[in-house]
Amino acid sequence: MIPTIPQSRSFRLVYGGYVALFFLYLALPLTVVAVFAFNDSQFPSLPWEGFTWNWFFGEERPQIGVFHERGILRSVGTSAFVALCVAVLSVSVGTTNAFLFNRYEFRGKGFLYVLMLLPLVIPGIVLGISILVFSSTLANGLWDLAQMDVQALRPGLLLVILGQFSFITTIATLVISARLQKFDRTLEEAALNLGADRLTAVRTITLPFLAPAMIGAVVVAFLMSFENFNTTLMLVGSDAPLTIAMFDRLKEGSTPLLNAVSLLLMLGSSLLALLVILFQRRG
Amino acid sequence: MRNQSRITFYLLLTPLVLWLGLLIIIPHIDMLLISLRERISFGVYETSLSQYEKALTEPLYLRTFWRTAVMSVLATVITLLIAFPVAYYIAKMAKGRLQQVLFLLCLIPFYVSELVRTFGWMILLRETGLISSLLQWVGLADQPVELLYTDATMMVGLVYTSMLFMVVPLVTTLESLDDSVIEAGYDLGGSGFSVLREIIIPHAMPGIVSGCIVVFMLSLGNYLTPTMLGGKDSLWFTEMIYNQFIVRSNWELGAAFGFMLLVLSSVIVWGMLRLTGRTLKETMG
Amino acid sequence: MTPDLECVDLVKRFDDTAAVNNVSFSVPPGSFFSILGPSGCGKTTIMRMIAGFLDPTSGDIRIKGGSVLDTPPNKRPVNMVFQHLALFPMMTIAENIGYGLRRRGMAKGEIGRKVDEALDRIGLPGIGARKVDELSGGQKQRVAIARCMVLEPDVLLLDEPLGALDLKLREHMKVELKALQAAFDTTFVYITHDQSEALVMSDQIAVMNAGQFEQVGTGQDLYYRPDTPFVAGFIGESNRWKGRIERAEGGNLQLRTDSGLAIRATGMGLSEGARAEIFVRPESIRLAASADALAEFDNQLTGTVTSLLFNGAASRVLVRDTAGETLEVTLPQSGEFASLKRGDAIHIGWGAGQASCFEAS
């Protein structure tokens, strides 16, 4: 069943057809979302009422476009802020983790490594509620102790950031570790030999080598945070990130406005992904 | 360890310990403690197993729990069956450019939020949706057909959502199988079926296991797809957690539910690893 | 007797290039046949066509007299030892060897017996339960052969199986492979780019270049009587000159090289005035302290030693002749020249029969 093994024509046709169907299945929902962003109607469904840009640029009711819809724009801003914080935090910790696991032998290393992987096998909702429960225990404790009401420990952006950070860090650690493992340590030794101290050697030799993986991890972390729903749902306060805002609207009934937002999301994330691919090809 | 190296070690260890301690371990212990208490009156709690008793005796809770487990296993199996031939095609049949393009095409849908993907299926499958219109146009239906809010629809959505996490590990392991090993299988008299069973699938086992674990986890923990695509009867366990926490503010019962979900997923992941004799480190790392 | 394997006018084109261009040969039963050539000459393509992993563009492949073109690879009575062996890593040694037997639906007990027998045969009894990666390189080699031989194929194909081994083991495996072939009494078709492997093991060798066979013959044929300049240059080492033929009488030639040296040589089908290439092996040149000792040789030169390349039995002397060219001459290990050193004057000579001459291309 590889090209060098002769196969009957009909088998090859059926197989090829199956694969084509699979890709149709993959593309169908996204295509439909994209196309109906241009429907000149209140509903993202048939009949097709004609082509319009209103769901992007419309200024008056009933067709207010994405770029004039305050609520959506604000939630995009919130999402971007959260995603940026999560990306920076998780890649920083991911990098230190990678160095720790790559460079040191210590008691309990294997155990810590498995612990580090755990967030991947904990359902997002459970991660969310455990952090919710713990932060409220903390907040209540502080109130009982000192009559202090720490708003940051109540559902809100800080908890959303921490919640997403708690599992995205594992992914960042894995991505960066994979690259660090390929690093030839004699390069660092050569730098030491040529007069650099340890920190300088890491900064001038190892970190540039890790850069592609770190940038890749930043983008992946950003996208994962931007798209996250489950953990965010449990921790969100009054400032809703985009996915939550869209979810609330979707429950009320959808207009092509949501299609327009979705299309912009698709374009945005494809662009980011493309940039990473281009960057890594050059590197 | 020399002094400087020791300091660096602790500097690197600190963020890891803070992260795992404050965001993973202690919160889960706290969740367990909360699930083990019973509210007597305002501000007065007592340690008891009553939450679990409630969860295990109330038929709705128990039924939803098992339904979620069984449906997640089913979604995993279906995803594997659909993904394997595609992954094999990408890894072994397609060559050069085509291979790269197909692989990238597989990834694209997953750069898009799960919400958008679910929304797409809603547009396609609802009563006024595309498929319904298509069926009427072809003449297979004489009035709008509601395809949403059934278990089958939910399954379509679950499988779609986790497809990538099955295809990627499968492609990676299948690619590492040397063509000449497959050729040797044929050369020694093997047929397509026996080569698949004795050579290809055993080789792909690590990919199958890690794909299945991730897909199972994602299905079990999914909230959006069952909520948006599933019907009134297809309640998902995550929805019950959400209801207890956010709608009813009954955190004790919600925490117990959360813990049950955690135990369920751990048991199944552990079982899958045991069955195939692999470790979590090999599979996920 | 019908040959075990016969290829007739075999052609394989990839797009515009012919990887295999009209190759015909036949391999008699029980012999060790090698195809020797540089990488990219098309030898792997021939092998894969015989195994059934490639369809020839035209021509025929016959095994025991019957064409196998329409037989899929899993039904052909040939088995192959792959370049990197392709042992199944997910199975034990016994499962690997029994794989083909299971495909034939043989009973379990019978398979176990045959596998044990094969393990005895390759001198590795009792390792059946081990995993593939617990074996050494040489042991894997033997298991790969046993895995094919239990199926009693008409022809065993071997695709450079020694390439991955280190030098010492490779030397050892050459002898062992030859012995295994004799023990199994099966036709082996062996492809390699390593001439020493081909020369040591083969009954017949085909030298292949650019999609075609240059010459088919025994090792001695190729070494002593090369048909083409490619074979003369590819097998063994040679001192080479280019020159013009001044006199031709039958096979005996008198040439003058471009550097001005007069050389007597032998070669067929060459006429006066033609451009030619001359090949003389380092080991056919005799060293002598005085010109008298070389009286019997057609070609005699004097020169100075410019370098001694010590390499045990394969030691060489570099000699600069009067025309300023450097020749490689084998240094006899009889002790006669033990005191030879750089700068010494030396006489060298060789017979016309040892200088092969071909028309220059």
Tell me about this structure.
The complex is a heterotrimer of chains A (283), B (285) and C (361). Chain A contains 11 helices and no strands. Chain A is mostly helical and 283 residues long. Chain A folds into 2 domains: 1-68 and 253-267, no CATH class; 73-244, MetI-like fold (Orthogonal Bundle). Chain A is globular, with a radius of gyration of 24 Å. Chain A starts with 8 loop residues before the first helix and ends with a helix. By secondary structure, chain B is mostly helical. Chain B has a single domain, classed as MetI-like (MetI-like fold, Orthogonal Bundle), CATH 1.10.3720.10. Chain B contains 13 helices and 2 strands. In chain B, strands 1-2 form a two-stranded antiparallel ribbon. The radius of gyration of chain B is 24 Å and the shape is globular. The mean pLDDT of chain B is 86. Chain C is α+β, with helices and mostly antiparallel strands and 361 residues long. The two termini of chain C are 39 Å apart. Chains A and B meet through helix 1, helix 3, helix 4, helix 5 and helix 6 of A and helix 1, helix 3, helix 4, helix 5 and helix 8 of B.
